[in-house]
Amino acid sequence: MRFHALHHGDEPLLLPNAWDFASGALLAEAGFPAIGTTSLGVAGVAGKPDASGDTKEETVVLARRLARLPVPVTVDLEGGYSERPDDVGALVSELASYGIAGVNLEDGYADGTLRPIDHQVAMIEAVKATAPGVFLNARTDLFWLGKGSLDETLGRANAYADAGADGIFVPGAAEDDDVRVLVEGIPLPLNVLHLPGRTDFARLGELGVKRVSCGSLLYRTSLQATVNTALSVAGKPAGRPVPSYADVQSLLEDGA
Question: Which UniProt keyword terms apply here (predicted)?
């Protein structure tokens, strides 16, 4: 229950997201109390597009390795790699057997649509029935996709809470007023995504956010450092910016 407790401290849990064992081990060594994974990073290492539902094997292999770390690990499962609740429940049960402390399960598809609420509720119920000790962070993508209102987001969040989720992840929520409404309207720890230039860790804590995820930022920053270092060694201008999610995804789609 150590991972659960990290969501109820005086400050938000800052969750850095790893993409291989070395990045996870270095983040744990740096003192972070828990580590997550990033689906974009896992997809990038595998040479596959993100959110394609095609990285289940790579995700499980990485999870098994990261479970050796001395800190709790939570795994990004995208949409669960299946439309069958029993399959998703079995997957999370397998991860729990390795020692994984938490999972993210999202309701958005790569094409910008959302799973029906009842179907996502069935997914969550299946996970909690087979792996009740795993912290299930239920992600709703209405804000991320720019498709929903606060009321719709709260409706989904509360349905997922009633189904047994342990936390709610609303990536894309950044404005103080929106975050405040979400904190007040959701009976579970709220997780938001750090958005450079738009969110401030201390301010999110003041608003009542309990978890702040780095998402793919660390992975994308590592790609920036790789290219700029190589350019610098070659004596060339080395001012490449951090690639966006869309930049990396485009490369992965072109190479698939």
Answer: Lyase, Pyruvate
